Protein backbone atom coordinates (compact mmCIF):
# COMPACT_ATOMS: atom_id res chain seq x y z
CA UNK A 1 0.00 0.00 0.00
CA UNK A 2 1.28 3.44 -0.92
CA UNK A 3 1.32 6.07 1.80
CA UNK A 4 -0.02 9.49 0.79
CA UNK A 5 1.75 12.50 2.29
CA UNK A 6 0.40 16.04 2.56
CA UNK A 7 2.90 18.94 2.76
CA UNK A 8 3.06 21.00 5.94
CA UNK A 9 6.21 23.09 5.35
CA UNK A 10 9.25 23.38 3.11
CA UNK A 11 12.35 25.48 3.82
CA UNK A 12 16.14 25.56 3.62
CA UNK A 13 18.35 25.01 6.66
CA UNK A 14 22.06 24.29 6.90
CA UNK A 15 22.34 24.12 3.12
CA UNK A 16 19.70 21.40 2.87
CA UNK A 17 16.14 21.53 1.58
CA UNK A 18 13.80 20.42 4.37
CA UNK A 19 10.39 18.94 3.59
CA UNK A 20 7.91 18.43 6.43
CA UNK A 21 4.78 16.49 5.62
CA UNK A 22 2.17 14.25 7.20
CA UNK A 23 0.23 11.08 6.53
CA UNK A 24 -2.63 9.30 8.26
CA UNK A 25 -1.88 7.71 11.63
CA UNK A 26 -2.99 4.14 12.07
CA UNK A 27 -2.25 4.02 15.81
CA UNK A 28 -5.35 4.04 17.94
CA UNK A 29 -5.44 7.10 20.23
CA UNK A 30 -6.40 4.74 23.08
CA UNK A 31 -2.94 3.17 22.75
CA UNK A 32 -1.25 6.56 22.83
CA UNK A 33 -3.02 8.61 25.51
CA UNK A 34 -3.45 7.76 29.16
CA UNK A 35 -6.65 9.68 29.69
CA UNK A 36 -10.12 8.82 30.86
CA UNK A 37 -11.78 10.78 28.07
CA UNK A 38 -10.12 9.30 24.98
CA UNK A 39 -13.58 8.81 23.48
CA UNK A 40 -13.88 12.60 23.16
CA UNK A 41 -10.51 12.78 21.40
CA UNK A 42 -11.58 10.01 19.02
CA UNK A 43 -14.84 11.83 18.31
CA UNK A 44 -12.95 15.03 17.49
CA UNK A 45 -10.57 13.13 15.21
CA UNK A 46 -13.50 11.51 13.44
CA UNK A 47 -15.37 14.80 12.93
CA UNK A 48 -12.25 16.67 11.75
CA UNK A 49 -11.81 18.93 14.78
CA UNK A 50 -8.42 17.33 15.46
CA UNK A 51 -5.79 16.21 12.99
CA UNK A 52 -4.28 12.83 13.99
CA UNK A 53 -1.20 12.09 11.89
CA UNK A 54 2.32 10.80 11.50
CA UNK A 55 4.93 13.48 10.80
CA UNK A 56 7.75 12.92 8.31
CA UNK A 57 10.78 15.17 7.85
CA UNK A 58 13.04 14.68 4.84
CA UNK A 59 16.39 16.37 4.30
CA UNK A 60 17.23 16.77 0.64
CA UNK A 61 20.29 17.90 -1.28
CA UNK A 62 19.98 18.42 -5.03
CA UNK A 63 16.78 16.36 -5.05
CA UNK A 64 18.30 13.40 -3.20
CA UNK A 65 17.18 12.38 0.27
CA UNK A 66 20.08 12.17 2.71
CA UNK A 67 18.22 12.06 6.02
CA UNK A 68 14.77 11.60 7.49
CA UNK A 69 12.90 11.30 10.74
CA UNK A 70 9.36 10.33 11.67
CA UNK A 71 7.10 11.07 14.61
CA UNK A 72 3.84 9.23 15.12
CA UNK A 73 0.86 10.06 17.26
CA UNK A 74 0.66 13.77 16.44
CA UNK A 75 -2.60 15.38 17.56
CA UNK A 76 -3.34 19.01 16.70
CA UNK A 77 -6.28 21.15 15.72
CA UNK A 78 -4.24 22.13 12.66
CA UNK A 79 -1.26 20.11 11.44
CA UNK A 80 0.82 23.27 10.89
CA UNK A 81 0.88 23.76 14.68
CA UNK A 82 3.49 20.98 14.85
CA UNK A 83 5.96 23.52 13.45
CA UNK A 84 5.60 25.78 16.52
CA UNK A 85 5.88 23.51 19.56
CA UNK A 86 9.32 21.93 19.08
CA UNK A 87 8.16 18.51 17.87
CA UNK A 88 8.99 19.14 14.21
CA UNK A 89 12.14 21.06 15.16
CA UNK A 90 13.57 18.01 16.93
CA UNK A 91 12.77 15.83 13.92
CA UNK A 92 14.48 18.36 11.64
CA UNK A 93 17.61 18.35 13.80
CA UNK A 94 17.70 14.56 13.88
CA UNK A 95 17.23 14.31 10.11
CA UNK A 96 19.92 16.94 9.43
CA UNK A 97 22.39 15.07 11.63
CA UNK A 98 21.66 11.90 9.67
CA UNK A 99 22.04 13.80 6.38
CA UNK A 100 25.42 15.26 7.39
CA UNK A 101 26.68 11.80 8.27
CA UNK A 102 25.43 10.41 4.96
CA UNK A 103 26.91 13.30 2.93
CA UNK A 104 30.29 12.73 4.60
CA UNK A 105 30.09 8.99 3.92
CA UNK A 106 29.18 9.59 0.27
CA UNK A 107 31.96 12.16 -0.16
CA UNK A 108 34.54 9.69 1.17
CA UNK A 109 33.14 6.96 -1.06
CA UNK A 110 33.20 9.19 -4.15
CA UNK A 111 36.76 10.35 -3.37
CA UNK A 112 37.83 6.71 -3.47
CA UNK A 113 37.07 6.60 -7.20
CA UNK A 114 40.04 7.37 -9.41
CA UNK A 115 39.06 10.13 -11.81
CA UNK A 116 41.13 10.08 -14.97
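Q: What amino acid sequence fits the structure above?
A:
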Amino acid sequence: MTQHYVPIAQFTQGGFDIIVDKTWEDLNPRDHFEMDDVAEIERKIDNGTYDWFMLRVRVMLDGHEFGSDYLGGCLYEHAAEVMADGAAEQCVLTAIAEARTEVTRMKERLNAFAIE
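Q: And what stands out in the fold?
A: The two ends are 45 Å apart (CA to CA).
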